[in-house]
Design a protein that fits this description.
Layout lengths: L1 H4 L7 H9 L5 E2 L2 E5 L10 E4 L5 H13 L3 E4 L2 H11 L3 E5 L8 H16 L5 E6 L9 H6 L3 E4 L4 H34 L4 E4 L12 H8 L5 H15 L3 H14 L3 H14 L16 H11 L35 H6 L10 H7 L4 H12 L2 H5 L3 H13 L10 H15 L2 H6 L2 H13 L9 H6 L3 H5 L5 H15 L12 H17 L5 H17 L4 H9 L1 H16 L7 H24 L16 H24 L2 H19 L11
The protein binds guanosine-5'-monophosphate and manganese (II) ion.
Guanosine-5'-monophosphate binds next to α12, α28 and α29.
Length: about 675
């Protein structure tokens, strides 16, 4: 036996494979034999290191005898090491009760070192025997020295016996299984030939303990080619998804990591295996109720149960614009309307002036002006009349009865989108098709919004919630309806003259952006943006690499999502008067929802938005703290928006000021 020549008398399956790896092929004819012990793994080999013969020492001696384990006793570290080198024990028990005789911890380290040299494994079982008065002491120094267990002094023979049995049946057996697996995997790796699994007497094993290993080998009977193709298949399964790759890398790293690192990696894996990687875990209920309600109301899809009442939609068929007959082009925009749009390229543009001047149809007018500024008709090869009909058709499907989610909000988001598209960094990143997608997405992103949140629709069992399975209900509806309105009638089909592939790309981008406005994904989008764009950009200076980061297809998607999200909830970054008006509108819409929930005995999704008790300043402070600040910090770091950040700061202070005076209203009372 080649193994003997290595001086490894206690040959085990894993030892043979170690030789194999070292180039000493332990082959018999065409077979690699993997020898795995089938008997109790602990048979024979326990080393007791006790300076003095006392009752504890005797307890273990007797226990070994009873368990049928061979046992050696060493009185000094030198004797222990000599004995271990020769017999190579499976289990070493070291007396740690009296430091005056020897240092148990350094002895353990030396034993482990020898074990490692002999086997290439660091899995030896070291048990230290401690005094009961040390029970409170930290086990960490012991673990660091390589001990696997602390046995608190107890000379009772049955206690010693039980300890040995538990070790044998528990950890030691588990490690033997691991070693056996390792042996077989190594053999499979190294050998082109069939593998036989035998016991030490070279008898082929069938029904032995290590069933995992047997199954594995049965998968590859005989032919090495088959084995390799199966291996390839197994391998390819593990490289499918990036997250699988990551988990595999961590698993591999764990194997060679010290205990604390391996344990930390366990926690990492636990987190990685969850589905909601980007959503912060909600705090406990005693936190600020405004934040809780916002999070509950905006970040969940109807987690609360239905109460039976059904929410009926007012409009089941898309609206036809009543004024489609009225031709309208950039040239015949009434002068007083045109006047209100003169400074539409400024952030401080007042959309409420436009809203008043055009009798609550600002989306069509502002859309015509902004789309023409960006050359959208030219890009789409679409007549201006088609764009006009399209804008009118979309605007007609916004509910003018909503206090917030009406076409003025859409026009406001379109305005912010156009403003962001002119920022230098954004222009460097996006192509014209991205700009066109962004402008269209902003225009349609809340079309047919019922003035109720996703949670409400799910709770009410609304038709839309049923249609979209309670997931991204509104956003799915906005995107789907936008394309229905656009394509059902050639008169307003702005995509009609596009080349098929270009249309598919544009459509994909629009859908992606509209779906990105769903607030359950808020933190996912913001964190991805920060990790993939802000952080890499902060680390480099040369123009070439900057360009690479900005224009990669994946990152362009992240930029577009962030852009529409910021445009969608940019109200707190507008000049104070505009910010106050928007806050009044969103609050009123939430109040109306709470009113209806109470009327219909539905669950109240956001109880703080009760018109009798709500503090609007508090709700704004929470909204800014929870959703706005981090997102705009990141967006500002990218696009450079000092004026927005200044407004945000002013507005935040304004709400704080009201709150400090315990005021609940939008504005302070007149002096
Ligand atoms: P949208 O439905 O407008 O596409 O998505 C934006 C989300 O943020 C909506 O759910 C809207 O209700 C919410 N939101 C926007 N502005 C404010 C605000 O100023 N305060 C609060 N509490 N929510 C807001
Ligand atoms: Mn919106």
């Amino acid at each position: 036996m080649p193994l003997k020549s290595h001086g490894l008398t206690q040959a085990r399956g894993y030892v043979k494979v170690c030789c194999l790896v070292g180039g000493c092929m332990c082959t018999l004819s065409d077979c690699v034999r993997v020898c795995v012990r089938t008997v109790s793994p602990l048979t024979g080999t326990v080393l007791l290191v006790f300076a003095k013969e006392d009752s504890q020492n005797n307890g273990f001696c007797w226990a070994c005898e009873k368990a049928n384990f061979r046992c050696n006793v060493a009185r000094t570290p030198e004797a222990a090491l000599e004995c271990f080198k020769e017999k190579h024990h499976d289990l070493v028990i070291i007396d740690h009760r009296h430091s005056r005789y020897f240092d148990a911890e350094s002895l353990c380290r030396e034993v482990l070192l020898i074990h490692f040299y002999l086997n290439g494994f660091v899995d030896l079982f070291g048990v230290c025997c401690c005094r009961p008065d040390r029970e409170e002491a930290s086990v960490m120094p012991l673990i660091k020295s390589g001990f696997n267990r602390r046995y608190v002094e107890n000379a009772n023979m049955m206690a010693c016996y039980n300890e040995l049995l538990q070790l044998e049946r528990g950890e030691v057996l588990a490690q033997f299984k691991l070693r056996a697996c390792n042996a077989i995997f190594t053999a499979l790796e190294q050998s082109q030939e069939a593998i036989e699994i035998t016991n030490e007497d070279q008898v082929i094993q069938v029904g032995f303990n290590y069933s995992v290993v047997v199954e594995f080998v049965l998968m590859f009977p005989g032919s090495s080619q088959r084995r390799h193709s199966s291996m390839a298949r197994i391998h390819s399964m593990t490289i499918e998804a990036p997250i699988t790759k990551v988990i595999n890398i961590i698993n591999a790293a764990q194997e060679s990591s010290p205990m604390p690192v391996a344990e930390a990696l366990d926690r990492v894996l636990e987190i990685l295996r969850t589905t909601e990687l980007y959503s912060p875990q909600l705090g406990t209920k005693e936190e600020d109720p405004h934040t809780n309600d916002l999070v509950g109301g905006l970040m969940t899809d109807g987690l609360r149960r239905l109460s039976g009442n059904e929410y009926i939609f007012a409009a089941k068929q898309p609206h036809l614009p009543s004024h489609l007959a009225m031709p309208l082009s950039l040239n015949d925009i009434p002068p007083h309307v045109a006047q209100t749009m003169e400074n539409e390229d400024s952030w401080d543009f007042d959309i409420f002036n436009l809203e008043t001047a055009c009798l609550k149809r600002p989306l069509t007018y502002l859309g015509l002006k902004i789309f023409s500024r960006f050359g959208v008709c030219e890009f789409l090869s679409c007549p201006e009349a088609t764009l006009r009909s399209w804008l009118q058709g979309i605007e007609a499907n916004y509910h003018s009865t909503n206090s917030y989610h009406n076409s003025s909000h859409a026009a406001d988001v379109l305005h912010a989108t156009a403003y962001f598209l002119c920022k230098e960094r954004v222009k460097q990143s996006l192509e014209q098709i991205d700009e066109v997608a962004a402008l269209i997405a902003a225009t349609v992103h809340d079309v047919d919004h019922p003035g109720r949140t996703n949670s409400f629709l799910c709770n009410a069992g609304s038709e839309l919630a049923i249609l979209y399975n309670d997931t991204a209900v509104l956003e799915s509806h906005h995107a789907a309806l936008a394309f229905q309105i656009t394509t059902r009638d050639d008169k307003c089909n702005i995509f009609r003259n596009m080349e098929r592939n270009e249309y598919r790309t544009l459509r994909q981008a629009i859908i992606d952006m509209v779906l990105a406005t769903e607030m359950t994904k808020h933190f996912e989008h913001v964190n991805k943006f920060v990790n993939s764009i802000n952080k890499p950009l902060a680390g480099i200076g040369d123009e070439e690499s900057v360009k690479g980061i900005l224009t990669s297809p994946d990152n362009r998607i992240l930029v577009k999502r962030m852009l529409i999200k910021c445009a969608d909830i940019s109200n707190p970054c507008r000049p104070l008067e505009l910010c106050i008006e928007w806050a009044g509108r969103i609050s009123e819409e939430y109040f109306a929802q709470t009113d209806e929930e109470k009327r219909q005995s539905l669950p109240v999704v956001m109880p703080v938005f009760d018109r009798n008790t709500c503090s609007i300043p508090k709700s704004q402070i929470s909204f800014i703290d929870y959703f706005i600040t981090d997102m705009f910090d990141a967006w500002d770091a990218f696009a450079d928006l000092p004026n927005l950040m200044q407004h945000l700061d002013n507005n935040f202070k304004y709400w704080k000021g009201l709150d400090e005076r315990k005021l609940h209203s939008l504005r302070p009372p007149p002096e």
